[in-house]
């Protein structure tokens, strides 16, 4: 039975009453925070840092050009531009404009933001440009001629939707339509895959390749190019967030399912072999492969033998499966990239990064270590096609980000750019500790604090967490929190709780579905450990999280309100009995459970923050943030939570922006305002 919801009307995105309520909430929050004398200078400082020309301009390399998306005071929406590697190496700022987003937005009178630019690998002067209104997930796709500097009128142009569109070659694309009128899943994602071939006058040829069932979550399709340029077209049909089937597209447009386990991800393709990461154990051809493994699977090993001897439904192994990375309790595969000759794997080892390469030697894969820093976090930044080059970033809490260019074949590398230090790190230390969860599990967490912090419980401390979707929380340079939090006497904590991906599939699955509350317990255990160590106290302790992390901090607030004095709950899920009815919510049933199922509904009801707000609880003044353009997590979650808190006699703050979407895709001025507002709130709650 669904409980009565007096605030259902706040889910409406076009109701004048709901909008008037939001406007009043925004005004009250701004009256309190924006009027604080610290807000304006703080916003200006953060904006100046964002627009500092010494910031690393990350790039994607295509055909000898380095392409970068840049925002500054003159281009608040952004400028897509390019330069040469030689100029970049020399530290020059000589960029050639390619596409001016501000000019387009002004000419078309649209609130355009750039969601991405996809170059055709073998003809990179052709690109698909993805535009989003207000930063939402739905995009408009238009083909752009880089050399001409203009859109192609009769090119590949697709209407607004949550589509998946990928180049096949210069004259064709794989298109999964997500626009209005196309068959969509319950979650609002594509159900069909089409091959679209370029035609004269924009009259393109459409060939339907695949249709997913009505109960599916979404489909996607793309083309891999092997080292010799041989193509492999793949369809990913997701029945739910984690369960999917992969299909090969044949030269005759036929499709054939690959007999991979449902919980597995194809991470790449090289030398005729698929790189497959397992989330479940897999029994295949008489062998057992464990969850968490990264495998190199020769394509013939998955392809039924078409000869008469191989017919009858049985797959005949014509290749092999080799384990590249075996699962380990404290190590997991974070990401995979392929170069012209090698597979490069980014491993999380004890919550720090380590890169390793695999090369084909005498028909088998051989591992070798790569000479990269091993004390922080590595992220792949770029891999230019048909090269052995990997560009990666490296940083930790106190080390500014550096951009490295590594030749995987030779091991030679160079630092292309280094971000300027935002603060003097010598005054601080970063430590790794662990808390003990209720079931005895050690929960790692990081603390960044002053080198001479006195452990008397007086340190204002912000704790951040996520704990979902197998997403790991890893150290990162605290470029804004350094000068504006650490230098003011605060400490920062990053909790690596279950539900995340720090230690592979088992760490995630321990807090999945009906076990979701495990992540809340882990987060609370870290908070209690901070207090027990004397770093902070409930009066000085705040928590922050966004999206699934918003669910985390919302749940912890209603469970243990006396433990925290600040809660920053950003673009959150909070009504877990209706989340599947709101926007993309139905796509997350695998992660949380289905409220339409009686047993799973009971588990959701047991922790749904919106339904556990109580009149007499000592909740701190919490700050909830959302966006009217968030078409992934409905702003109704935050709206209704604030309304219920206020109706039961609690103070609560809401800021709902007009742009930014779920991921904060906004102009730099808005980004600076949002961060300054959070900091002022934290000052007031934890420092004043």
From TrEMBL:
Keywords: Hydrolase, Protease, Serine protease. It comes from Crenobacter intestini. GO terms for molecular function: oligopeptidase activity; serine-type endopeptidase activity. Residues 4-173, 320-418 form the Peptidase S9A N-terminal domain. GO terms for biological process: proteolysis. Residues 483-686 form the Peptidase S9 prolyl oligopeptidase catalytic domain. InterPro entries: AB_hydrolase_fold, Pept_S9A_N, Peptidase_S9_cat, Peptidase_S9A, Prolyl_oligopep/macrocyclase. This is S9 family peptidase. GO terms for cellular component: cytosol. It holds the Pfam family Peptidase_S9. It comes from the Bacteria.
